[in-house]
Design brief:
Helices cover 43% and strands 8% of the residues. It is built from 7 helices and 4 strands, in the order αααααβαβββα. The strands form 2 sheets. The protein has a two-stranded antiparallel ribbon. Strands 2-3 form a two-stranded antiparallel sheet. The longest helix has 17 residues.
Length: 182
């Protein structure tokens, strides 16, 4: 009979708070300063020369902390983007009459928020959420929303139009008070 390889079972990743505490308490309580100077020497060499983590659990914990720090700045922006999308979908009318700008603003639509956020290999970049077809008038804004997930290059030609919508909303907010009737 042939030999079967034993599967290596990796531990579940820890939450950021526990991961931070786990790393500090278990591995370098008094050697923290030395760890920052030369982490490879601190962990010791075993297996490969470039292995700087003691085991998979420590590596996973470090990655969790790093990911949490990266995502923290974009969290509020993402919440605002989701709110804007929810408002646009709520007021979108299929009978082509358009959306009342004042109603959108009253519901909390923020034209200063970008419409899409995604993380590239170079860091966090802000992009627009979708392609908007619009009809500009004194009172109405017609928006067609649909998702694009495959190719981000397709957005480039439409950025000016989307900015035009957002600029129009900003001007509308300046000239109309929340209590105005349309």
């Amino acid at each position: 009979m042939g030999k079967t390889k034993a599967r290596r079972i990796l531990p579940d990743p820890l939450p950021p708070e526990q991961a931070n505490k786990y790393i500090k308490d278990q591995y370098y309580p008094e050697y923290e300063a030395w760890y920052h100077i030369c982490p490879a020497t601190f962990w010791g060499f075993f297996g490969r020369k470039n292995q700087i983590y003691l085991n998979a659990k420590v590596k996973s914990a470090v990655a969790t902390v790093k990911r949490a720090k990266e995502r923290t700045p974009s969290k509020e922006v993402q919440i605002a983007i989701n709110k804007n999308e929810r408002i646009l979908r709520k007021f979108y009318q299929r009978d082509r009459k358009g959306m009342n700008w004042l109603m959108i603003i009253r519901d909390g639509f923020d034209s200063d928020v970008p419409a899409k956020i995604y993380k590239s290999s170079f860091g966090i970049e802000i992009r627009f959420y979708g392609l908007f077809g619009y009809y500009l008038d004194e009172k109405f804004l017609l928006v067609r929303i649909f998702r694009r997930t495959s190719d981000f290059q397709q957005y480039e030609n439409f950025d000016g139009d989307i900015l035009h919508i957002y600029d129009a909303l900003k001007n509308f907010k300046k000239t109309h008070k929340p209590n105005d009737k349309i």
